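Collaborator request, handled under Task 6.
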Amino acid sequence: MKSILQSQVSSNSILTLFRKVRPLFLFGCLNLFILFIPTKSNAQGQFGVSFQVFYDNLSAYGSWVNNSNYGYVWAPSVSRGFMPYATNGYWILTDYGWSWYSYYSWGWAPFHYGRWFYDPFYGWVWVPGNEWAPAWVTWRWSDGYYGWAPIAPGISITFANSYNYHQYIPNQHWRFVRQKDFGIRNIHQNYVGADRYLSLINKSSPIQNFREDRTRNTTYNTGPAKLEAENKSGRKFSPIPIREVNQPSQQLKNNRLEIFRPEVKKVTDGVAPAPSKINTWRGQQQPVKEVPKIEKQEIQQPVKEQPIKQVPIRQQPVKQVPKIEKPEVQQPVKEQPVNQIPIRQQPVKQVPKIEKQEIRQPVKEVPVRQEPIMPPPKIERPEIHQPIRQAPKTQQPNLQRPIRQEPKRVVPIRKEKEH
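C-alpha cells returned to the collaborator:
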C-alpha cells in the first residue's frame, strides 16, 4: 500500500511540474521556429527602394548621362571591347535559371536590372529598370551551339525570344559557344569566331523557357534546360541557391550566390530620384530611336487585323458577282442594232420603194407634221399617180409613130431623082 501511495504521489508531482513548465516549453519551440524562417533583407523591406540606389552606387564606376529617349542612362568606365553578358564573367545555374555572374563589383545591378544598348560614342550604355532577373538576354540554340545577346530597351521578354527578333540585332552583338563549353568559367576563351555568327543565327531557333515570379510580377527566360545542357556538355549542373544580402554586392560563398536584389519602384512619393552629377548626351540619337520602333512593327502588324479584314472582303465579292452578271444579260441589246444593219441592206436592193420611205421619215419633222393636218387625202393622191406610170407606156408607141413618118418624107426625095 505504501508503494502504491508513493507512486501516485510521484505521478501527481510530475503532472503539476509539466503544467508549470509547458508555457516555457512552447515559448522555446516558437523561438526556434522563428529563427529558422528566412527573412527578407532590410534593403528589400516593405517599402522597397527607388532608382536612387542605382544613381548613388554606380556613379563611382561610370558616368550618368541624360538621354532624350530614356532619361538618365549609365556609361560604365570599362576597357575597350567591353560587352555585357560576355566580358569578365560566366554563366552559373541557380534556382532562378542561368544567371550571369560578373567579376565587376557593380555587376549586381546592370546585369540583373534594366536593358543595354550600343552607342558609337559611349559604347555600351545601361538603362535602369525595376524588374530583377538572372539575366536580360535573348537565348537561341543551333546544332551543337548556344547563343545569346542583350535585349534592347523597350522590348518585351516574349518578343525578345520570338522567331523574328534576331533580325534586329547586329551580328557582332551575339555570342555563341559550343554546347560542350557552356557553363565553364573561362567561357570567354571559347567564343565562336564572329565570321560564323551569321550562319549560326540563320540556322538557330529561340529558347523559350519562361518562368513567372509571382511575388514580383516578373517574367523572364531561364535559358537552356538543365537536362539538355547536361546531355550536350557531358557535365552535371547543380542549381546554386540565391541568398539576398543587405548591401549592394554579389559573391559566390559556401556554394551559394549572395547578391543584393531589392524591389525597385519606378515612382516614389516626394522628391524624384536623380544622379548627383549628370552629363549631357553626346552620342547619336538615331540608333536609340530605332529600338522602340521594333515593338510597333511586331504589335501593330500582327496577324490580328488580317482575319478581321479578310472575312468581309471574301463575303462581299461573292454577293456582288451575281449582281454584275445580271446586267451583262443586256448584251443582246447590242445585237438589235446589228440586226438592223442587215435590214437596211435588204431594202437597198428595192431602191425605189425603200428610198421613198426613207425620204418620208425626215418629212416627219415637226414643221411637216404641223402643217399637213388636213392632207391625209393628199396621201391618197400618190396612189392615183400609179397609173401615171402606165402613161409612159402609151407614150412609147407615140414615139414610134414619128419614126414611121420619116419614110414618108423620103418618098418625095425619090421623086426628085426621077425627074
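The cover message to the collaborator said: "Residues 43-306 form one domain. The CA atoms of residues 4 and 109 lie 74 Å apart. Please let us know whether this matches your experimental observations."
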